[in-house]
Amino acid sequence: MCAKDSRNNNNKRWGNKFIDKRNWKIYNEELVMRGEFLLPIDMFDNWYEELDKMNEDKKGRPYEFPESFIKIQAVWHQWVDYSIEGIARSLEKLCLIPYHDDYTTIWHRVHDMRPEIKLPTYGEVEAGSDGTGFKSGNAGEYRTYVYGNLRRKYVKVIITADVRTKKLLAVDVKIGEVSEPKVAVKHIKLLKENGIKLKKFYGDGAYDTNEIFNVIGDAESAVKIRKNATTYRCRGSRRRRHEVRKYMKLGYKKWAKKVKYGLRWAIEGIFSSIKRKFGEDLRARSVIGLLAEAMQKVWAYDIMVSYAKNAMLMA
Predict the structure, then answer these.
(1) What whole-number distance in Å separates Cα of residue 112 and Cα of residue 116?
(2) Domain residues of the chain, as ranges?
(3) Taking a C-beta distance cutoff of 8 angstroms, is the pair 283, 81 a contact?
(4) 5-32 pLDDT per residue, tens
């Protein structure tokens, strides 16, 4: 009986009581709007106007297909291969586009495309950073059993996003070992260069570095301090020394509740959503293709979510 009571106490939630404040009717409509984005018919109305702008002062062969159409095809490419030419043919038959592109054109325009993440229009963010991996080659256990250990390239994706709105702020893709804190420092500097104020920064124990605490400046922090941290090893960052002392005084549970450390899981939620929707396997074989495909997965999710939110605001 005592053992059972002990297990119940261990499983008891120690943080704030969860209150579901989400408006499910609005959220469900946003999910529907994401599907509408996959075929944004109104976008094709400006086909020739966009081409004129793209080809203005361009040297060499002019573009035949607007960038907005190619980006939609890049989103389609997350689910299907270059048979998306067939989708373009159907759109032409329905008179939604004037003409379609072929396999070669799609490959050249989509394969190496690394679209930029649009920054938010509001000027203050609560940002968090984290990283995850995507694997190349969908080799299952049977292939591994037959052919032995297969060499795979793992692509590391590091994102910085607003934990409140789930809006992506910056993305880096690398192959091999990469320092997540250094990438986060670069992302924070990018935000400041674009006039976006960092109100608070969230990160797990990997981001407990002098560089992170120095770059966030006067912003609040919710960076988990490492277990072996001491105030004697904080040379180079007064801010980190202060945070270490505060963490040691409160202890993890009180500290986490006070700084709302749980909001950091919003970043994990973004990764989970991306992988559920597009998978975590990359089909490209070249290094350039792998990096571009990983970037496109993250970008595609962000642009779909942004489209749905904006559509709901306009409704």
Answers:
(1) 13
(2) 25-110, 124-309
(3) yes
(4) 545 555 665 556 667 777 888 888 888 8
Token pair in block for residue 264: 């950091």
**Does residue 4 or residue 298 have the better pLDDT?**
298
Can you read off the two tokens belonging to residue 23? 């408006």
Task: Please tell me the pTM assigned to this model.
Answer: 0.84
Predicted confidence (pLDDT) at residue 175 exceeds the cutoff of 60: yes
117: left (phi over 0), alpha (psi -120 to 50) or beta: beta
State both tokens at 169: 């702020």
Listed in sequence order, the residues at least 6 apart from 135 whose beta carbon sits closer than 8 Å to its beta carbon are 152, 153, 154, 155, 280, 281, 282
Quick one: which H or E segment has residue 308? helix 287-314
Q: What is the DSSP letter of 165?
A: T
Which residues does residue 23 pair with via DSSP β-bridges, in sequence order? Answer: none
Structure tokens at 275: 């992988």
